[in-house]
């Protein structure tokens, strides 16, 4: 069982990442950043390689939710194929991220409660 001090340290470590939630949805050509085995995207190289190889990576939507609930949104004004589908995917991603964040906070709160018992 974690001690109270360990639980507080765990909460402190996590709060740096809890200050805001950010979700970005992109569209474009990522052929230049596929993994060597072709099994997926090399996420670490996604932005640098797509720019260097004149990729077509474009920001479709972005959402930033502050810890206090303040929210900032961006949506491209560009006419893109499948824009409704991409915006629906973005909204689902924001909702999934919020639920994951809520679960993480609950996990630390439960740990803190158990440490204080």
Features:
117 residues, alpha+beta, three-stranded antiparallel β-sheet, 3 helices, elongated
Task: Give helix and strand order, one letter per element, not per position.
Answer: HEHEEH
The helix fraction, in percent, is 40-55%
Mean pLDDT, to the nearest integer, reads 80
Distance between the termini: 11 Å
Strand arrangement across the biggest beta sheet = 1-2-3
> Which overall shape is indicated by the principal axes computed on the Cα atoms?
elongated
- Domain count: the total is 1
Q: What's the story with the biggest beta sheet?
A: 3 strands, antiparallel
Number of strands: 3
Count of helical regions: 3
The assigned structural class equals alpha+beta
Give start-end ranges of low-pLDDT stretches. Answer: none
Percent in strands: 15-25%
Report the C-alpha radius of gyration, rounded: 19 Å
What would you say this structure looks like, in words?
The chain is of the alpha+beta class. It has one domain. 48% of the residues lie in helices and 19% in strands. It is built from 3 helices and 3 strands. Strands 1-2-3 form a 3-stranded antiparallel beta sheet, with helices on one face. A hairpin with a 4-residue loop joins strand 2 and strand 3. The protein is elongated. 8% of the residues are buried. The mean pLDDT is 80.
């Amino acid at each position: 069982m974690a001690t109270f001090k360990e639980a507080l340290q765990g909460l402190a470590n996590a709060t740096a990442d809890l200050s805001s939630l950010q979700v970005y949805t992109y569209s474009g050509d990522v052929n230049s950043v596929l993994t060597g085995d072709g099994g997926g995207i090399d996420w670490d190289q996604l932005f640098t390689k797509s720019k260097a190889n004149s990729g077509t990576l474009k920001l479709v939507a972005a959402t930033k939710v502050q810890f206090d609930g303040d929210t900032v949104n961006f949506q491209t004004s560009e006419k893109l194929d499948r824009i409704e589908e991409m915006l629906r995917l973005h909204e689902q991603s924001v909702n999934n991220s919020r639920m994951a964040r809520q679960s993480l906070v609950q996990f630390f709160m439960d740990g803190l409660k158990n440490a204080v018992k």
